[in-house]
Amino acid sequence: MSASPARARIPVLIVGAGPVGLATAVEIGRRGVAATIVERRERGGHQPRAKTTHVRTVEHFRRWGIAEKLRAASPLPADYPTDIVFATRLNGFELAHFVNAFSGRRIRDERFSEAAQWIPQYKVEAVLREEVARHDNLTLRHGVEFLGLTQTDNSVIVTLRDLVADHEFEIEADYVIGADGPRSPVRNALGIATSGEAALGRHLNVILRSPELAAANSHRRAIMYWIVNPRSPCVLAPMDTDHVWTFGSPLAPGQDTLTPAEIAQRLNAAVGAPVAFDVLTTDLWAAGRVSAESYGGGRVFLAGDACHTHPPFGGYGMNMGIADGVDIGWKVSATLQGWGGPSLLASYEAERRPVHDLVMDEAVRNYAVLSQHLVDARLEEDTDEGAAARRAVRARILETKANEFHALGVVLGVHYAGSPLVVGDGTAPPPFLTTYAPSASPGCLAPHAWLGDGTSLYDHFGPGFTLLKLGEAAGLERLEAAARERGMPFTVFAPGDARLAGLYGARLALIRPDQHVAWRGDAPPDDAGGLLDAVRGARGIN
Question: Residue-wise over 304-329: b if at least 16 C-beta within 10 A, else e?
């Protein structure tokens, strides 16, 4: 009888090669840690899933050196307006419009280093896969299914199935990250329950090809057209080259799909004229607000839809999942490299869950007003009464939907104040609002600035902790020596820009690997080592 093959031992196993799993791998791989990503199926196809890559996510792509690759992969030209149009039909009355939705216009804005990008998720994944392939310490394996796991004191033994060769095998990993979607086999293997409202509504997303749609459109160019009429309240959006559009339509309770004839009826009613089209694929999805009761156990962690799902209105889902990957990615890497403290990994859920709760609540508020909720039978009447109805609906759209499309505060304003890794200074971060107020209060995202040489302040942050020196301060050598003693990656950057001391409210600011402020002050504390131990999860600080 032949001996079983030796069990491979790896630092990190990531289950799921969607955008969250791939982004987590890139974060880890760029820090010099090896990781293997397994995915049971080949990914791709026409379903866009996410369509908006938010400002903060594109900033991570910039940090990884691939923001321009992301933009080049977008099927829409660089000058395409990121506007939203509400109309009775694609060839009907305009009801309202929003300019520069999601802060996607390619302009230099002092508040951030990268504009948002309208791009289907499958193209985001392609860019991330290409980046994964560039790293010798990252391995991506398709056709591999997760079956189960057991944990020891110092590792996780994972059972997998090679679906091509049809055989089971084991991998032993220091840590496992489940980025395997809302039905998460990894979460189920840990026995973690979920709670929340799983069925707020059902929708059918149809990806279709129709050269006639653009010609039928009488409105300004936009990334989304919200259609408001009683026969077909829906959302239409240009998605890809070769006349590919996405068409999202609500379903009645208990309805699972639409027949080809029903799709045609709804599409023609949305356009306002018959159009020829080919259906490329359809996707049934249910909106809900659901959270895992724990974000992991032992050496296993959950990220993205595996631990939180919510309605997609506002485009937060993929972006929030990638932020999960960044958070757990730098913390797992620091732990494996020996400079992360014993409490560092426990801070993942402590930091991310409050963020998820706030953003998910915002998504549910956005979901409360959809196209079907705006319908008025008089909207298409070419009469004084029809004009009055359109004015009333316009007012309601502007009142209820502006926060969905202009929500930079949700994207950049989330913070980790109160985290065990953040050393407070008695100040509070700005309230959680859709408008964005930059703040260097500990826990907040470091305020951005464009420097005199044209570079972004963020471009000068190191891969580990960065001490911003914004004025004269004594005792920096104590912090540098304490960082060397602990093996912490530590950079000092003095921008020489007089504006920044006022922006940061201190002469010094310690920036975490994820670009959030960990501490600020006018001089290092006497116990410099204690400060660094606090922010790396080694112990608290008085």
Answer: bbbbbbbbbbbbbbbbbbbbbbbbbb
pLDDT for the residue 4:
47
d(CA 397, CA 403): 10
Which residues, other chains included, contact 426 with Cβ-Cβ below 8 Å and sequence gap of 6+? none
Q: Write out the two tokens for 304.
A: 């993205």
Same domain? For 47 and 148 the reply is yes
Those residues with Cβ within 8 angstroms of residue 31's Cβ, 6 or more apart along the chain or in another chain: 329, 330, 333, 337, 463
Indicate whether 442 and 528 sit together in one domain.
yes
CA dist., res. 446 & res. 429, Å (int) = 12
Domain residues for the domain of 26 are: 8-77+113-195+289-365
Asked whether residue 40 carries a pLDDT value surpassing 90, the answer given is yes
Predicted confidence band of residue 348 (pLDDT cuts 50, 70, 90): very high
| Amino acid identity at 56 | R
Q: pLDDT tens digits, residue range 391-408?
A: 999 999 999 999 999 999
Q: How far is CA 517 from the centre of its chain?
A: 20
- Count of structural domains, the chain: 2
Nearest one of 471, 481, 478 to 507, comparing CA atoms: 471
Which residues have a Cβ under 8 Å from the Cβ of 5 and sit 6 or more positions away? 169
Answer positive or negative: Cα dihedral of 18, 20, 25, 27: positive
Neighbours of 299 (CB within 10 A): 21
Q: Hey, what are 5's tokens? A: 């093959």
pLDDT recorded at residue 47:
67
Residues 361 and 196: beta-carbon distance below 8 Å? no
The CATH number covering residue 21 comes to: 3.50.50.60
DSSP character at residue 408: H
For residue 529, is pLDDT > 90? yes
Distance of CA 396 to CAs 95, 195, 350, Å?
10, 32, 37
Q: Is 159 exposed, middle or buried (0-12, 13-18, 19+ CB in 10 A)?
A: middle
Identify whether the C-beta of residue 130 lies closer than 8 Å to the C-beta of residue 257: no
Residue 408: count of CB within 10 angstroms of its CB:
21
* Alpha carbon distance 197, 358 (integer Å): 16
More confident residue, 5 or 95: 95
For the chain, how long is the longest CA-to-CA vector? 88
Task: Give the number of residues written for the chain.
Answer: 542
Among residues 29, 40, 212, which one has the least CA distance to residue 143? 40
Do 92 and 229 form a contact (C-beta atoms < 8 A)?
A: yes
Query: How far is Cα 501 from Cα 215, in angstroms, rounded to an integer?
Result: 53
Give the SS3 label for residue 301.
strand
370 assigned to some structural domain: no
The stretch 502-528 carries a mean pLDDT of 96
pLDDT band at 5 (very low <50, low <70, confident <90, very high): low
Note whether 69 and 178 are same-domain residues: yes
- Rounded CA-CA distance 165/163 in Å is 6
pLDDT in tens, 211-256: 999 999 999 999 999 999 999 999 999 999 899 999 999 999 888 8
